[in-house]
Amino acid sequence: MNIFQQSIQLREKRRGFHLITGEIMRALPQISGINSGICQVFIQHTSASLTINENADPTVRKDFEMYFNKAVPENDPDYQHDYEGSDDMPAHLKASLLGSSVMIPIRNGKFALGIWQGIYLCEHRDQGGPRNLVITAWGN
Q1: Which ranges of the chain would DSSP assign to H, the alpha helix?
Q2: Where does the sequence pass through the membrane (predicted)?
Q3: Most exposed among 13, 23, 59, 101, judged by the fewest C-beta atoms under 10 Å?
Q4: Where in the chain are the domains?
Q5: β-sheet with 48-54: strand ranges across
Q6: What is the pLDDT of residues 35-93, one digit of tens each?
Q7: Cα(88)–Cα(103) distance, rounded to whole angstroms?
């Protein structure tokens, strides 16, 4: 079994849902040598998250942003954690709902994603800054 790990920093992205599949694949080219395995992508932040969903139609990503903004609104007077801005506490909640990592099977040196699937960086802050990821792949 081989294990590979790489840390990368994604440049700052605007608030929303962004496809990052290509950036992940380029960051760990050793995946091409894995016949059968797993890749975990982990984000080292509490106000951004990762998920896997539609990779073709950009309106899906816009609808994700619309839905989460409705489901977890800003400026709720009941939030106690409010000193980092009105988007901070909602960002923490959204990140917890979506999660901090995704797992992708590797088959014949490639991600075994479905034809319409891609990895999203879910940026929940207006100015979240660069985001750090740890990518770990293992297999035979």
Answers
A1: 21-27, 58-71, 88-98
A2: none
A3: 59
A4: 13-127
A5: 16-19, 117-123, 48-54
A6: 999 999 999 999 999 999 999 999 999 999 999 999 999 999 999 998 899 999 999 99
A7: 26
Per the structure block, which two tokens stand in for 139?
């297999």
| CATH class in words for 13-127 | mainly beta
User: What angle separates helix 58-71 from helix 88-98, to the nearest 10 degrees?
Assistant: 120
CB within 8 Å of 94: residues ≥ 6 apart: 49, 68, 72, 122, 124
Three-state DSSP class for residue 67: helix
Encoded tokens for 50: 């990762």
Decide: 134 and 9 in contact? Cβ < 8 Å: no
Closest CA to 40 of 103, 114, 107, 109: 103
Contacts of 22 (CB under 8 A, 6+ apart): none
Q: Are 69 and 16 in contact (CB under 8 A)?
A: no
